[in-house]
Amino acid sequence: MSSEKLYEHLSYLNDAITGLEDIIIQKEGHIEELARQLANAEMEAHAIRKESEDFANRISRDAQKHIEKEVHSRVTATLAAERLAMKEELEKAHRQVAEAKASKGKKSADPQIDLFGQVWGAPQQPSKVANDQNALILAGKLDSTIDKVQRLLKEAGA
């Protein structure tokens, strides 16, 4: 090979190497730009994730407040209804007691006690028995009211 051809070939290789270096520099610049864009995208994703979590927490707090208000209104309504039912039951018991006292005053004599019947304890007056029965009824209603309130509170907590 002649020296001119060799020089030409080396010159061609030098130009090719210079071109490749330029391409590598461009690619490195492009890679740096992509790395910067990736870092920006990651920061935006983190900010969006944080914003989403804040939004979800805000929604959760609002829902919890709504649930608490709903439970409170239901418990209040249930208690009011039970209170009204107990009041009506108490008024009914008072009327029965008043009727029993009124009819007791009209009788000419106390009823005879069955001396030969089974006696389980000291005989009680009829009004006392009625009062005891009414007290048991009211206690049962109070128990059911307490059960309902506890059930509502459990549902609200779940």
**Run of helices and strands:** HH
Mean pLDDT: 84
Tally of domains: 1
Distance between the termini: 92 Å
Helix content: over 70%
Gyration radius from CA atoms, angstroms: 47 Å
Main structural class? mainly alpha
**Regions with little confidence, pLDDT below 50 for 5+ residues:** none
In total, the number of strands is 0
Shape: rod-shaped
Q: What is the makeup of the main sheet?
A: none
Strand fraction: under 5%
The number of helical segments is 2
What is the compact description of this entry?
With about 160 residues, this protein is an all-alpha fold. Helix content is about 85%, strand content about 0%.
Sum up the structure in keywords.
mainly alpha; 2 helices
Structure description:
The chain is mainly alpha-helical and 158 residues long. It has one domain. It is built from two helices and no strands. Helix 1 (3-106) runs antiparallel to helix 2. The protein is rod-shaped. The mean pLDDT is 84.
